[in-house]
Amino acid sequence: IKKLQLYEKQQKTILGSLEFIKKLIGHYRHALPTMHTPVYFKIAKSLAERLQMGQDGIENLYYACVLHDAGAIDVPFDILSKTSRLTPQEFKIIRDHPTRNFELIKPVEFLKPVLPIILYRHEKYDGTGYPSGLKREQIPLGARIMAIVDAFEAMVMIRPYRNKLTVEEAIEELKRNSGTQFDPKAVGAFVESCKEKKFRNYLSSSMK
């Protein structure tokens, strides 16, 4: 019992630290266009529930959503805030972002199931993504879900270097890339979820 109580205390301490990281990242969200909106996990959770991911899977997805930008703390501010095209060296630093996240979280034992989601969220369904060129079901479902939410937010949020898309235009873009960049089932779940008012409100809230 004492061991269990100690474990729970340690877990609460770690979760408190994660919340701190989340708030720290959120503090810079308006300065850094790569950061995500507060409804990011709500969108991801809606897709996970429609795809019958299960409670444990959704919990791991939550941790992944909280932590997947943690490695950005180690990326130079001038790269994250850059409005022009990245140099090959700068792009390599950005591409190394998932690995940095992985190494940052790796020592936390109970977050082991979260690591593949964070590491592989930039993989593409057809195998052309990074860091490992995984394809189809080799990519964890949570990572496939996050890839869609990432892409949607990137399309509808204001960027200094391009015009943002409307929600409808972004949805059409997801559909066009279904089966290549994105998991067709996850895209289908996104499209079906769009019929729900609450989900549409999430999508509208993600625009800025």
Structure description:
With 208 residues, the chain is mainly alpha-helical. The chain is 58% helix and 0% strand. The chain has eleven helices and no strands. Helix 8 (141-156) crosses helix 9. The longest helix is centred in the first third of the chain and has 26 residues, at 2-27. It is globular and about 55 Å long.
Structure, briefly:
By secondary structure, the chain is mostly helical.
Task: Produce the secondary structure layout.
Blueprint: H1 2-27, H2 40-50, H3 55-67, H4 77-80, H5 88-95, H6 97-105, H7 115-119, H8 141-156, H9 167-176, H10 184-193, H11 197-205
Helix pairs in contact: 2-3, 2-8, 8-9
Identify the notable features of this structure and list them briefly:
208 residues; mainly alpha
Q: What is the alpha-carbon Rg in Å? A: 17 Å
In terms of per-residue confidence, which ranges show pLDDT below 50 for 5 or more consecutive residues? 29-34
SSE sequence, one letter per element: HHHHHHHHHHH
Mean pLDDT: 79
How many strand segments? 0
In terms of structural class, how would the helical and strand content be classed? mainly alpha
- Give a short account of the largest sheet: none
Helix segment count?
11
C-alpha geometry: globular
**N-end to C-end Cα span:** 49 Å
Helix content: 55-70%
Strand content: under 5%
